[in-house]
# Entry
Amino acid sequence: MLVSAKIVEAFNAQIGHELGASHQYLAIASYFDNEDLSELAAFFFRQADEERDHAMKFVRFLLEADGQVRIPEIAAPKNEFGTAVEAVQASLDWEKEVTQQIYDLVALSQAENNYIAQRFLDWFVTEQLEEVSTMSTLLGIVKRAGEGNLLYVEDYLSRHGIAADGE
# Structure
């Protein structure tokens, strides 16, 4: 096996975190869809797909490294939001938390001198910069527009977009 049991356990936990994020983004997308804000809904539906893809990267890595994949239990997402700001703020907070999770995985890989795991995680470190930046930008736009002017956010996203996939 190319990774230790400790790394396998930590990566399996991260699979759960990424799938949990996917579920949370589905809930946020549904919130925006119920509010008839189709561009915000589409953004978060794409984000949900991306988070699932991140989980699959960890799955494939573990399988290639001869690690045992164990999908952890995933808590139910928050389904109720009072405002668009609350929903987007939750997304930004989540991305900051995931960034720390990735940092912890990097630290574990470094402590074990596991260069294969470190190189794999390099992509995630860069990805988290994009994720936090994107959510921060979106939160700023939503706050500037205000709850009564979310159609301006819809218009902005339809014209300029903010890529949920880092593109």
